[in-house]
Amino acid sequence: MNMKFYRKLPIPKETKEMFPVSAEIAAIREQRLAEIKDIFSGRSNRFLLVIGPCSADREDAVMDYIYRLKRVQEQVKDKVMIVPRIYTNKPRTTGDGYKGLFSQPNPDAAPNLFAGVIAMRALHMRAIKETGFSCADEMLYPENHRYLSDLIGYVAVGARSVENQQHRLTASGLNVPVGMKNPTSGDITVMMNSIKAAHHKHVFCYRGWEVETEGNPYAHAILRGYVDQQGHSHSNYHYEDLAELFEIYKASGLENPAVVVDTNHANSGKKYLEQVRIAKEILHSCRYSKDVHSIVKGLMIESYLEDGAQSDTAVYGKSITDPCLGWEKTENLILHIADIV
User: Fold this and answer.
1) Residues 17-37: pLDDT tens digits?
2) What is the tens place of the pLDDT at every residue in 163-183?
3) Mean pLDDT along residues 131-141
4) Residue 13 domain-assigned?
5) What pLDDT is stored for residue 66 in this prediction?
6) Range scoring the smallest mean pLDDT among 79-93, 192-206, 288-302
């Protein structure tokens, strides 16, 4: 085996004992989680915004951003529910360089997974304690979920993971809404099969244990666009795409039919400024059709303090992975969405 073993990391149970959740934090998280589930079940008509940096690269900038979201949330709380993105496992797409907060809590230093385990739990805990937000994270590695399972309010399964059986089975055992992205090929059947798998009960091997899950009725679709064989981006956020997804859901018989539309990635061709226009078009489609309105529960938006992206860490609050919408444009967009929905 061409692999060096450096040290054994603490298991999730040990990490939770080192950084326990207080009764106050647990109560806040449970309340937030109930409100998010109400959106997906249709008990609430608030519009969900899963919004924030592509990758949570540094605690100070991420918390600065989340504090700003808190102020806006107070203005739009009757119509919009904000769930900040704290994506702690998100590396650069190629795998070159920055590996994400879990692997590299200091983006300018070498990987340190022990420090990363602590850093990602501390950041999610701080967000709840200081702002009242139970945040979103991507389940890039299913075995890592339990490090954060008592803190997060929303989970996304990425386009490159949605076909993976371990992701599907793990999603079926989570007690939070899980968004399953369409694969990079754009095959909606693959995404729907993943959602069905997550809705069902399963028995499988997880972290060396035989486990049984109850199924997750809040697993749902995320449309993020796709890429063809020549590497060209194609969008799937238009009215026709949403109307077709409504019909697919209707035929499936799945509980809580829902979609969150990702305004970046292949939907924008990674032209991050297009997210504003795309969001407005989706809202127009919802106003045009009650069927589309019934399944579109929210948007996923990549946003940070500064516009764009950078290859290093010179600019505070500027993404070091995918380009993001800056704060001023973000605030204006959230207020516009609240006026429309």
Assistant:
1) 999 999 999 999 999 999 999
2) 999 999 999 999 999 999 999
3) 97
4) no
5) 98
6) 79-93
pLDDT tens, residue by residue, 78-108: 999 999 999 998 886 666 778 899 999 999 9
What is the 3-state secondary structure of the chain?
Answer: CCCCCCCCCCCHHHHHHHCCCCHHHHHHHHHHHHHHHHHHHCCCCCEEEEEECCCCCCHHHHHHHHHHHHHHHHHHCCCEEEEEECCCCCCCCCCCCCCCCCCCCCCCCCCCHHHHHHHHHHHHHHHHHHHCCCCEEECCCHHHHHHCCCCCCEEEECCCCCCCHHHHHHHCCCCCCEEEECCCCCCHHHHHHHHHHHHCCCEEEECCEEEECCCCCCCEEEECCEECCCCCEECCCCHHHHHHHHHHHHHHCCCCCCEEEECCHHHCCCCCCHHHHHHHHHHHHHHHCHHHHHHEEEEEEEECCCCEECCCCCCCCCECCCCEECHHHHHHHHHHHHHHC
Region 109-120 average pLDDT: 93
Q: How far apart are CA 107 and CA 99, in angstroms?
A: 8
Confidence of residue 3 (pLDDT cuts 50, 70, 90): confident
- Single-letter amino acid, residue 127: A
The verdict on residue 89 lying in a domain is yes
Tokens, residue 262: 């990702």
Contact 310, 318 (CB under 8 A): yes
**pLDDT of residue 258 exceeding 70:** yes
Among 226, 234, 235, 249, which Cα is nearest to 297's? 249
Single-letter amino acid, residue 195? I
Total-model pTM: 0.96
Domain count, the chain: 1
Structural domain including 274 reads: 18-340
Q: What is the CATH number of the domain that holds 180?
A: 3.20.20.70
Q: What is the largest CA-CA distance in the chain?
A: 58
